[in-house]
Amino acid sequence: MSLKIVFVIAAFIGAIAAQHYYQQPHHSHHEEEHHAPAHYEFQYDIHDDHTGDVHGQKESRKEHQTQGEYYLIDADGHKRTVTYHVDGKSGFIAQVHREPIKGYQAPQPVHKIVVAPVQQHHHHY
Questions:
Q1: By the 8 A CB rule, do 119 and 92 touch?
Q2: How far apart, in whole angstroms, are the C-alpha atoms of residue 16 and residue 31?
Q3: What pLDDT sits at residue 120?
Q4: Is this model's pTM higher than 0.70 or not?
Q5: What does the DSSP 8-state code read for residue 51?
Q6: Is 4 helix (H, G, I), strand (E, B) or coil?
């Protein structure tokens, strides 16, 4: 479970870095020469049987080209997959695909019943 948390944190940091990059003002060609080309890859998958949380993402970037995909299982039993790319000029372009999962059964909530002894108080008058 802790490894899953590490992947989620790494993905979060990558997403923040990507967002920061795309929100920066455009620089002149001369200023860009001082920065090394961006290059990274990451991937994570979560499958938690207890909560029913199933999702994942993979992304790669080389210079101004970013491409990736993420998926999740919606509450209605459909798998939603989003593929996306950014080429630096066109902005964020995504395609969404949904398909039902055969035999999918949503996790059932666990109901706990707590039984505590009842204390009886006798008042003597």
A1: no
A2: 22
A3: 76
A4: no
A5: T
A6: helix
